[in-house]
Sequence to fold (383 residues):
Amino acid sequence: MGKKKNKKAKVNAASYTGIGTTTVVNTNNAWWENLNGPSIKQPYIYKGDLNKTDFPEFIKVCRFPQKNLKQYLVREIEKYGYTPIVGDGFLYARSENCPVLLTAHMDTVHKKPVKDFYEFKTEKNGRNVHIISSPEGIGGDDRCGIYMILHILRETDLRPALLFCEDEEIGGIGSNKFCSTGYHEELCDLKFFIELDRANANDLVFYDDDNVDFHTWCEDQTGYRENFGSFSDISNLSPATGVSSVNISCGYYNAHTLREEVIVEEMMDSILMTEKLLTAAQDESLEVFEYVEVPSSLKWAWDDYDDYYGYYGKDYKDYRGTYDYSQKKSPEEVVMMGIVFLTRDLKEEETFISGVTEEDCIGQFILEHPDICWNDVLDYYFY
Fold:
């Protein structure tokens, strides 16, 4: 079969520059024209004061290598009355007064710990915000989650169960090890789990948990919206315990790149939303939210890629409601996609992706090329 060219659409709609990203709104192709980040064709410029911050505790967390961070966390949570259980791949502490698990992972994708960082003040959505980045990669994924948990312990009397996992970025190694110890059985009576390991400002991600009541309850409590991703540690924890879980935005952007940024005020917003969920969980009338696994064919279609920037948003939700997941596509129905893009050394490269839908192909391309944004795609076609 011949390859049908589908030249990259010219933008014929309003554009605006966000914090660290350029978002293009296209009424015809909105679901893929929103895949914009800082293009490699436009070198990233670190802005603000060098190594000066209004948030020293956050910078401290960002600078630890994983091993040292684990030791630091042991000392920190002991200050708040916990008895830490240090295991191979994890750090666990039982709930003191709140029937919820808070979890975050201790590793980042970056090869070096943060040495230098930049912090600058700007305006976003009508308010002043602080943006933090680093030439080594700030590691907001997931040092934001670590900081957020410590902040909650420091500023409130809430004492949920805690789980800090190692090596999430290479396949959820720490959470898998935790689930093999038997400690996970202690979590089965908790009402739900919260992971703090999500990009953006107001996302709720449930992965393979299809408990609609839990989704709706979280949206009502926080005002945040459901979005979609592929994997984090709760993807291991919920199936192992039968308890529903949610991953909440932490205010970082451009994850897995040296252009990663943390918007501190958005991180603080999600701290407040997390505290709200923890407080609501103390209502004795609220029962355990049970994990309901999505149909296996839905997982087959969507578990192969990440969704760090909210690629599909409500379009994905609509698609999910209309697609018949009871049947996988036959080989004859698989969509093939060719993509021509610009590499980091400014050379053209072409790759080929297969998937069950056009959206699926683009999602897999983004996962396989985390340093490439849609601005660097020169051409694409389906066949």
